[in-house]
Design goal:
The complex is a heterodimer. By secondary structure, chain A is mainly α. Chain A has a domain of 218 residues. Helices cover 75% and strands 0% of the residues of chain A. Chain A contains 20 helices and no strands. In chain A, helix 15 packs antiparallel against helix 17. Chain A starts with a helix and ends in a 9-residue tail after the last helix. In chain A, 61% of the residues are buried. Helices cover 73% and strands 0% of the residues of chain B. The longest helix of chain B has 29 residues. The radius of gyration of chain B is 18 Å and the shape is globular. Classes of the chains: A mainly alpha, B mainly alpha.
Chain lengths: 497, 219
């Protein structure tokens, strides 16, 4: 099963490289993405077998992440149908890289070996670089260079961290490989100084890829310059894959009895990221950069939540889940608005509700979802994190967390509301493209965004037991079986404690 | 005898770090990197021989992969990229050559001081592995942040990777060959893509300065 998840997109990537006609290549990309989703959904049938292989295996945590990433890719492939116009960079390479990215991220999710996970994460960086360069030009080039160099160097530090962790396992005399399972089982025998060093390096290294401040400086450029479809994939899929890598490092650290140590650092870097994001969100003038800083904020929230350990582990998973859906849809809508108005400057876009009511409605829904208003899922997850901070006695964390959430809320809402409301400006209107094909393209883009938002809304208001169980099992995987998540969490549909 | 050979290789590696920090000609810098990588590729075999009389096949595979990539292929790519452009010298780095050598020396001292405080849980091939690895890593980072030319930045990244490679000597038996080769493959593809990007940067700007990239822009 794990092999299939990796091979399906890889094979379709090769098909994309081979097909002669651009139209067919796009079709192959869409089919590849949906075939991957099909395999993922199929893998949910029946019970997961316990991981036996040293390298590959699906555990609950990886299963959840690969499902989210696959769903986002399927929606993104639809969005790309509408977004795609003229191939500037070689379209062949672009589509193959997109599927290659999906394949690499699948490896990240199903790898049970820290070394293999690293190799796959670096491969995903390399596959994403040509995607950012799609629009060509000086600024896209700068963004690509920054992305490539910062991520490669950051992730090199993570490799050193992995080596430190492996070194820590050598003291006990047992022959332990880099396999996550083995490291967790022998957690008590690990040398604590080297585990600490390993975790810190992994946190800094993967944190660069995840966009945690102060290592986030590549992120707004990359997200701002990449085509909107790719921005959605970068912030929904690759950032979360990096978070998964941090969770794996946390898993080992927790098993070695250093969960509290790792948690403190995660909380510190997470709160700092939220603060930095807040500073740059307020007064931001470029819509996609605004969304990019919002990604920094949400990654900060995830770091804080993971740092709170088992008390917030369920909320962490819930947050990952809904963040993927809403952030993806916001970037999809940004792509649509960018084409409708011919600009991503917030000042250029206003009165959308008059001119494009459906798009503006989706924009508002996604905005309310991403800032964490009820009834959307992020409200529940953020509330759960607040409760967890209170329950574990981290009052400073609770206060700072709430403050930064408020700052971001104000910044986001004041920036986006005028885009939807206000009077449409007659003078600066770009020539209205009302061709038949154009309308279809816009409809496809809006549909892909609507699918994600609707999915999030449905799952936030009614959460089937199977979904809840999946989230709980994933939470228990990274924060240890002693997780008291059922008590610690206020779940959608339940009465608040 | 073998022990002293390993030690002298590691010492040479540190000196080559300083040499790279001091050179302004990029071609010379690339060749120094190739020499450093060649020395490092000998280490897995030397360590293997010291441990048991016949080193396992996977040590040879790793050494061969490292030689093929870091001694021949990657320097060749970089020299090729260099030859297509006009500029062959690092001019006006953010930190001058003399100061960066001084800083590099400080980093080396600090690494030795640090390594003393982190006792290894296992027996190392030599006491020099950890300090040399950390020194190389940070010298690479220094090169990366203090230079303005894209090629020199790539070299800095490669030196960082070399530092991690040295650290990997402690884990020769632990790391599966698959992972080792994956790391080398990633490194190769990374440099390949960086080479392409540098080519585009050149075409776009007629030079290779990364700090002049882009128009003025808000945060």
């Amino acid at each position: 099963m794990a092999i299939l998840l990796i091979l399906v997109p890889a094979v379709f990537a090769l098909v994309c490289l081979g097909l002669p006609a651009p139209r067919w290549r796009v079709a192959a990309m869409v089919v590849g993405a949906w075939a991957h989703l099909g395999v993922v959904l199929w893998s949910w049938q029946g019970q997961l077998e316990p991981v036996s292989d040293e390298f590959l295996g699906i555990d609950p945590l990886g299963h959840l992440f690969v499902t989210l990433i696959s769903g986002l890719f399927a929606a993104a492939s639809l969005h790309f149908l509408g977004y795609h116009r003229r191939a500037l960079l070689s379209q062949r390479v672009f589509l193959a890289c997109m599927l290659g990215l999906l394949s690499a991220l699948s490896v990240v999710c199903v790898s049970q070996n820290l070394g293999l996970l690293w190799v796959a994460l670096e491969a995903s960086t390399l596959a994403a670089a040509p995607l950012i360069y799609f629009h060509l030009g000086a600024r896209a080039l700068e963004a690509t260079w920054k992305f490539l160099l910062m991520n490669s160097v950051g992730i090199a530090l993570a490799l050193l961290g992995i080596f430190c962790t492996a070194l820590a396992s050598m003291g006990g005399g047992a022959d332990i490989s880099l396999s996550v399972k083995e490291l967790v089982v022998h957690g008590a025998n690990l040398d604590s100084a080297w585990v600490r060093a390993g975790f810190l390096l992994a946190m800094v290294g993967y944190g660069t890829k995840m966009g945690l401040a102060p290592l986030h400086s590549w992120l707004p450029d990359a997200h701002g310059e990449a085509p909107a479809t790719i921005s959605a994939l970068l912030s929904g899929a690759t950032l979360n894959a990096a978070f998964l890598a941090i969770l794996r490092a946390y898993q080992v650290c927790d098993a070695a009895g250093l969960g509290a140590f790792a948690g403190r650092w995660l909380i510190a870097i997470g709160l700092f990221s939220m603060a930095v994001a807040g500073v740059f969100i307020v007064g931001q003038r470029h819509f996609k950069r605004l969304l990019a800083y919002s990604s920094v904020e949400h990654m900060g929230i995830l770091a804080v939540a993971a740092g709170l350990g088992s008390a917030a582990s369920y909320s962490t998973m819930l947050h990952v889940f809904h963040n993927v859906l809403y952030k993806g849809s916001l970037f999809f809508i940004a792509g649509l608005l960018g084409q409708l108005y011919g600009s991503y400057q917030i000042a250029d876009i206003h009165g959308a509700l008059h001119r494009y009511p459906v798009t503006a409605f989706l924009l508002l829904a996604a905005l309310f979802a991403i800032v964490g208003l009820p009834p959307f899922g992020l409200f529940y997850s953020e509330l759960g994190i607040l409760f967890a901070a209170g329950r574990t006695g981290n009052w400073w964390v609770l206060a700072a967390f709430t403050l930064f959430l408020c700052v971001v809320f104000v910044g986001m809402v004041t920036a986006v509301l005028p885009m939807a409301f206000g009077k449409p400006d007659e003078l600066t209107n770009p020539p209205d493209r009302t061709g038949h094909v154009e309308q279809w393209r816009h409809a496809v883009m809006a549909t892909s965004a609507a699918l994600l938002i609707a999915g999030g809304l449905v799952l936030a208001s009614y959460q089937p037991t199977s979904v809840r169980n999946a989230l709980e099992r994933a939470a228990a995987t990274f924060a240890g079986p002693q997780s008291s998540s059922r008590v610690a969490v206020c779940a959608p549909g339940e009465v608040l404690p | 005898m073998l022990q002293s050979a390993i030690d002298s290789i590691l010492i040479l590696v540190v000196l080559l770090n300083l040499a790279m920090l001091a050179t302004s000609r990029m071609a010379a810098c690339i060749r120094t990197f190739a020499l450093q990588s060649l020395l490092l590729a000998l280490l897995p075999i030397a360590v293997g021989i010291r441990h048991e009389t016949t080193p396992g096949a996977h040590l040879y595979v790793i050494a061969a992969g490292a030689v093929g990539l870091k001694v021949f292929l990657i320097p060749w790519i970089l020299l090729r990229v260099l030859r297509t452009g006009e500029i062959h010298r690092e001019v006006e780095p953010f930190i001058g050559f003399t100061s960066s050598v001084m800083l590099g020396a400080v980093i080396i001292i600090a690494s030795f001081a640090f390594a003393k405080r982190m006792p290894l849980p296992t027996e190392a091939p030599t006491d020099l592995v950890v300090p040399v690895s950390i020194a190389t890593l940070f010298n690479g980072l220094l090169m990366l942040v203090s230079r303005v030319k894209a090629i020199t930045q790539v070299l800095g990244y490669l030196v960082v990777e070399n530092g991690i490679f040295i650290f990997g000597l402690l884990l020769l038996e632990q790391t599966p060959v698959l992972v080792e080769l994956g790391i080398l493959l990633d490194l190769f593809v990374a440099v390949f893509i960086m080479g392409i990007v540098i080519y585009h940067i050149r075409r776009e700007f007629d030079h290779m300065d990364t700090h002049l990239l882009g128009e003025p822009r808000e945060v």
